[in-house]
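INTERNAL AUDIT FORM
Audit reference: QA-55
Scope: verify that the stored structure record matches its stored sequence.
Auditor: D.O.
Record contents follow.
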Amino acid sequence: MKLVTWNVNSLRARMERVLEFLDLHSPDALLLQETKCSAEQFPEEELAAAGYEAVHHSGGRWAGVAVLAPKGHGLKEAKVGLDGEASPDQARWIEAEIESLGIRVASVYVVNGQEVGSEPFAQKLQFLAAMAARAEQLAETELVMGGDMNVAPLDLDVYDSSKFEGATHVTEQERSGLRTVAERGGLVDAFRQLHPDEPGFTWWDYRGGSFHQGFGLRIDLLLVSESLSAAITGCGIDRSFRKGTKPSDHVPLIVELTR
């Protein structure tokens, strides 16, 4: 099975690329972040025409998360939001069962944090704590949690760690919060399991030619239950979706598992 996470940075703006991706890769689940649309604007009909159904948590012009699965796969039991998150209206968490796969999936868009010591930074740490609590509740479930974590877990995940001193995304507080999610949920970083020494960047700033110069971060992750980790056969990105017409600043991260 093929599971994908992708921060599309506006689903309506990126719809053509999303449909292209579905046609090219035919994923068994696509976890989207930053859909940036209201519930009424969510393009269910276009996705249905492409053979996919969706559950979504839509919060308007900011944030928004969704889970897509092929029709007939049994996408059900959606749960939106996290107990204990600071701003539930921001639409940053959705989870659902995919019956045909026998797994639960969660799409997450972690708070950016803006500046260390700011109120948004405190909310980010609070959100990570809420994620950890939910991960622990799901620890006995076969789970794939994917999304834009807005945390680079290691210095290896940053093109130049010296340029991020004192900035968000790399502090020990954020990294510790993310580690706790994995530890309490019994989750494995799929990419790092297969590629312990590769940067594996998933995001590049639109400005300054960052993509072409390799100035990236690995902040999009797929965290997989330990019980599924032995079934991981591949994990990587599709760089072509950071190129071409109207690309997101993130690329799709793809994990393949055998059952």
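Auditor finding: record pair retrieved intact. The two ends are 8 Å apart (CA to CA).
Action required: none
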